[in-house]
Specification:
Elements lengths: L4 H10 L2 E3 L4 H4 L8 E6 L3 H14 L3 E3 L6 E2 L5 E6 L7 E4 L2 E5 L4 H10 L2 E2 L11 H6 L3 E2 L2 E2 L4 E8 L4 E6 L17 E9 L1 E2 L2 H18 L6 E4 L9 H7 L6 E2 L2 E3 L6 E4 L5 H19 L8 E2 L1
Parallel strand pairs: 2-5, 3-5, 4-19
Antiparallel strand pairs: 1-2, 6-7, 7-13, 8-14, 9-10, 11-12, 11-13, 15-18, 16-17, 17-18
Length: about 300
């Protein structure tokens, strides 16, 4: 186990919360994963930047977990530092624009848009992540992606130790991808823009989006959402279903019978169960269709 005593002294001096008792199973939406050596909970954007500065100066690579919604951690102890950004969640809205910090949940972002009669956010309602994760993966659903509403953001460049501003063009957005996936840059805050709308209409469409998710996705079980990226010209869920893999299970992990693109934790699943099931799905689909599925989730 790495010695983080010097880091903890700095955090204590700055009164930044941390814990040595957290497990990935308590913060990942899959509800799997081993103990985390050190988890840090910055309470503001200034604290987040301070933590990143400290880790950089100490030569420690951080893992920013956000809300833990798109990750598959290992069963063994994670001998590193995880940053949880839940408390870095301030926001405000003006006209058709929303300023949001990285830890704000996607659902709250949508609710703020609705409360302020800003249209363009309803398709994102129900995505179980944060603003930071939404930008990192260019997340989205039902034909919409983060690039459709993102204007600019403030990011921490871990290589230089400086803050920088990136616009939509700078982000190199593509399907479930952004520049953040290839650079050591972390979102701190972002500005999103929609268009004027009627609050009642927006609320109704948000309700329909939530109903559509309930009808088509296995929300009753822990999962990380869609496991695989969409192959060109097709859908991962369709290929998996055509292979007869709905309901296929390894331990407590199961290919959802409601949506074949999801793997769910039916109870007691381990990360190893899920990884084995992923490998089986990829092998079966490749043998049947010659298509090698790629994971959308981050496997640690």
């Amino acid at each position: 186990m790495k010695d983080f005593s010097a880091l903890k002294e700095i955090l204590d001096g700055a009164r930044i919360a941390y814990s040595e008792k957290e497990y990935f199973s308590s913060i990942s939406t899959f509800r799997v994963g081993g103990k985390i050596a050190l988890t840090i909970f910055p309470g503001s954007d200034a604290e987040l930047i301070s933590v990143l500065d400290c880790l950089r100066n100490s030569g420690i690579e951080p893992f920013v977990a956000g809300r833990g919604s798109n990750i598959l951690p290992d069963d063994d102890t994670y001998d590193g530092v995880v940053i949880k950004t839940d408390k870095v969640n301030r926001y405000y809205a003006a006209e058709d624009t929303i300023y949001a910090q990285c830890g704000l949940s996607t659902n709250k972002l949508c609710a703020v848009a609705m409360e302020n009669s800003i249209d363009g956010f309803t398709d994102f309602y129900g995505i179980p992540g944060s603003v930071g994760g939404l930008l990192h993966n260019n997340g989205g659903a039902f034909g919409s992606s983060a690039e459709d509403i993102f204007v600019r953001g403030a990011f921490y460049d871990f290589d230089s130790g400086k803050m920088c501003e990136l616009t939509r063009e700078d982000m190199c957005f593509s399907y479930r991808s952004s520049i953040l996936m290839s650079r050591r840059m972390f979102a701190v805050s972002a500005v999103f823009k929609g268009k004027p709308g009627r609050r009642e209409d927006i609320a109704e469409r948000m309700s329909r989006t939530a109903e559509r998710r309930r009808d088509t996705q296995p929300l009753e079980y822990p999962s990380a959402g869609s496991v695989f990226l969409r192959p060109e010209g097709d859908f991962a869920g369709r290929l998996i279903e055509e292979c007869g893999l709905k309901g296929c299970s390894v331990g407590g992990a199961e290919v959802s019978v409601k949506h074949a693109g999801f793997i769910v934790n039916k109870g007691g699943a381990t990360s190893s169960d899920i990884r084995t099931l992923i490998d089986h799905i990829k092998k079966t689909v490749y043998e049947r269709f010659g298509v090698m599925l790629r994971c959308e989730i981050d496997i640690l």
